[in-house]
Amino acid sequence: MKKGVMRPGHVQIRVLDMDEALKHYTDLLGLIETDRDDLGRVYLKAWTEVDKFSVVLREADEPGCDFMGFKVVNEEALIQLEKDLVAHGVVVEQVPEGELKDCGRRIRFTVASGHAFELYTDKLYTGKWGVTEVNPEAWPRGLSGMKAVRFDHCLFYGPELAAVYDVFVNVLGFHLAEQVLDPEGTRIAQFLTVSMKEHDIAFIHHEERGKFHHASFFLETWEDVLRAADLITMTDTSIDIGPTRHGLTHGKTIYFFDPSGNRNEVFCGGDYTYPDHKPVTWTADELGKAIFYHDRVLNERFLTVLT
């Protein structure tokens, strides 16, 4: 049920020390700084992304995620989605053009889990970094660290997953790719997509509202994930778990933390999905295997360390 949402567009992450955060996100993850603004925010992108930025860092007193944004196909679709959200009882806030540098107007709303999201149509098109659009080379020279390919998705923890599902599926046009059900058949994890990817956003049930679990970045190969693990150790970066494989989505993954305590993921692979695919279901008794396929048990940090 396509409604006009194309893909994840950006995430704004709160960091405690901008200099330390920039070193992490550029030198280690391999994102490219593209701009700064008068509020002190720093704009970053991965090399294959065609818009000016996908990650915004904001220095603050506590870590976490301010909002995640999704790009909409055109202004007509944005206007209709705004009407649909309002008709659904969702409170919509107008964010003017230019509030994020070189980004058009955005509409922002908060879902029942306590997380803020926004939709927009326009952002400055800058093209892929370091390669031309005619006869491009395979990859650009001069990339740093893990050489992140793209910002891929976020995972959020919060309550009222059914209400969140209702907004994302019935209003915004996402579909459910994978889920975890408890013994009563209640969905306690949901992986939602507007693309062929297994998830563009995911939610796991948690009693506290508005918690941020991780922002994820795509790498090309398993060897790239193993190299990322080496770089994590070389830089004494705090690691959560991995390298390993997920049962959910089957992606190969490693989790680690930025200097402010925000969790990052880099991964490769993963299943594909189309809207006519039935959701893949995991049962709560197999949650350990669903999250960490090889270990088959959850580590405490993955469930409890949130920002």
TrEMBL record:
Alphabetical keyword list: Aromatic hydrocarbons catabolism, Dioxygenase, Iron, Metal-binding, Oxidoreductase, Repeat
One Pfam family in the UniProt entry: Diox-like_N
This enzyme's EC code(s): 1.13.11.2
InterPro entries on file: Catechol_2-3_dOase, Glyas_Bleomycin-R_OHBP_Dase, Glyas_Fos-R_dOase_dom, GlyoxalaseI/FosfomycinResist, VOC_core, Xdiol_ring_cleave_dOase_1/2, XylE-like_N
Segments forming domain VOC: 7-122, 150-269
GO terms assigned for molecular function: catechol 2,3-dioxygenase activity; ferrous iron binding
Essential cofactor(s): Fe(2+)
Catalytic reaction annotation: catechol + O2 = (2Z,4E)-2-hydroxy-6-oxohexa-2,4-dienoate + H(+)
Family per record: Belongs to the extradiol ring-cleavage dioxygenase family.
Quaternary structure (record): Homotetramer.
Name of this chain's protein: Metapyrocatechase
Organism annotation: Marinobacter salinus
